[in-house]
Amino acid sequence: MEETCYKNSQRKGSAMNGVTVIDHPLVQHKLTIMRRKETSTGSFRRLLREISTLLCYEVTRDLELTMATIETPMQTMESPILEGKKLVFVSILRAGNGLLEGMLELVPSARVSHIGMYRDHDTLQPVEYYFKAPEALDERLMIVVDPMLATGNSSIAAIHKLKERGATNIRFLCLLAAPEGIKNFQEAHPDVKIYTASIDSHLNEKGYIMPGLGDAGDRMYGTK
Ligand code: URA
Fold first, then answer.
1. What residues are paired with 71 via a beta bridge?
2. Is the residue at 164 inside a domain?
3. How many domains does the chain have?
C-alpha cells in the first residue's frame, strides 16, 4: 500500500500570509477521523468538541496578559491574568456552534455572538437571518468560528457586519479552508488572521471543499 507523507508544506503553526495552519498531531489525527465518511454523527460531534479546544488554545496563544495582585493561602503575589474586556466568540450558524462548545469549555467567561447565515444553494451567496452581539465590540477581541472556509462568502459577510458594529480586532478560526476561500477572504479582510487545521486542495463546482469532510452541519447534526 502506498503511503502518503503528511506534507511539510502544511506543517507548523506557521503564520504564512496571515494563515496559521495548526499542525498539532492531536488536531491532525482527530481531523483525519472526522473526514472519514464512516465516522458516525456522535463521534463527529465529540471529535469536533475535542478539536475545538485544541484550536482555541492556539488561536488564543498570544493574548495579552497583565499582572494582578492576589492572595494565595500562603502569601500575596503578582500573577498574570488576561487583559482587557472579555473575549467574544462569534458563531456563524449553524455549523459554527460545533466549534463554539469546546471553546467555551476552555474560556467559560467569553461572551458569545451568533450570526445566522445560510448559503443560497444556487448563488452560493450568504443570506443573513439573525444577528446578536454584546456591547463595546471596539474594545474586544472577536474570534469568529465556522468549521469550513469554502467560498468565504458567509464569513466575509459576517465580518463586514461585525466591523459595521465597531469591531476592529478580529480573528477567524476554521477547521478546513479552501485556497479559493482564503484568497477571497483576504481580499475582503486583509486585517483578519485565519487559523485552520488544514488547507485542502480546491472547491468543487458546488462549492464544497475537496477532499474536505462533506457538509459540516449535516455531519454534526445528522441531518442527511
Ligand atoms: N460547507 C460545508 O459544510 N462543507 C463544505 O465542503 C463547504 C461548505
1. 76
2. yes
3. 1
Pocket of ligand 1 (CB under 6 A): 95, 148, 150, 208-209, 212, 215-217
Range of the domain at 54: 8-221
**CATH number of the domain encompassing residue 81:** 3.40.50.2020
How many whole angstroms from 209 Cα to the centroid of ligand 1?
Answer: 6
Q: Could you give the CA distance from residue 13 to residue 182 in angstroms, rounded to a whole number?
A: 16
CA 116 from centre of chain: 16
* Intra-chain end-to-end CA distance of the chain, in Å: 32
Residues in the chain: 224
Contact 212, 31 (CB under 8 A): no
What are the b/e assignments for 173-194, b being 16+ CB within 10 Å? bbbbbbebbbebbbeebeebbb
Residue that has been written with the C-alpha cell 491532525 in this structure: 28
Question: Do residues 162 and 133 touch, judged by C-beta distance below 8 A?
Answer: yes
Cβ-contact 79, 66 below 8 angstroms: no
Residues near 215 by Cβ (< 8 Å), separated by ≥ 6?
208, 224
**pLDDT tens for each residue of 150-193:** 999 999 999 999 999 999 999 999 999 999 999 999 999 999 99
Q: What is the pLDDT of residues 76-118, one digit of tens each?
A: 999 999 997 889 999 999 899 999 999 999 999 999 999 998 7
Ligand 1 centroid from CA 138, angstroms: 30
